[in-house]
Here is the input.
Amino acid sequence: MALRQDHTEPGLRPSPAVNVLLVDRDIATRTRVANYLQDHGLSVAAVSSPQEALREFAIREQNLVILNLEPDNECGLDLLRSLRSFCEAPIIITVANSYDEIDCVVTLELGADDCLARPVGLRELLARIRAILRRWDAAHPAPARSPDRSGYRFGGWQLCRRARKLTDPNGNPVPLTKGEYAVLVAFLDAPQRPLTREHLLHATDVHEDIFDRSIDVRVLRLRRKLQINPSAPHVIRTERGVGYIFNLPVERCNELRNSAL
Here is the structure.
């Protein structure tokens, strides 16, 4: 990705909670872009290959993806297709000047949210990111706080819905993303019962145009947080041809005291 070096724009910083995944084979460009975006308050994971990109999705929730496409790199389009099969986040594509208009149209039809021809100015790239995230936030407002103040206990774990706080058997808080929290609540509302991916999609308010692979990624992240002892049976078990089962019995409580959580 060829870039024009711009002066830093002072005074404007996106939320530090925004995670950006940058996929670019060129190490110099990758480093320059990542440093610039991090200087402006974004959390950036910079990788060089589709395999690394997919691994990042298993590690943390991504709010935006920047994918650089090279004319000789067909796997870039394959990665775009793969990401769009489960990824809700906006995707910005950068292409070489040798790409024509039709190539950009193809990336947009495959699910990209924006397509930029290189060289790309760093300040322009940041402005595009902010604009896309503003539109995304407007189209996906945070769900209203649930009036249900109940909580759950399971296998020594506790979840307080009022505080949206999960603690492990040792009393340590375990952070959850919004998606992970929604999936966990869906499981706790129906423990030891097979739940289909379609049920989980509906329960977590994922838009119907997003494929069920997004649920698989969220379940994977949640499973890793709940699986303290790798030798113990999985807390969340995959049921072939159906979906998932939450293995542990769950105790529903009308109110959990904050001192216990």
Notes: The chain is about 35% helix and 20% strand.
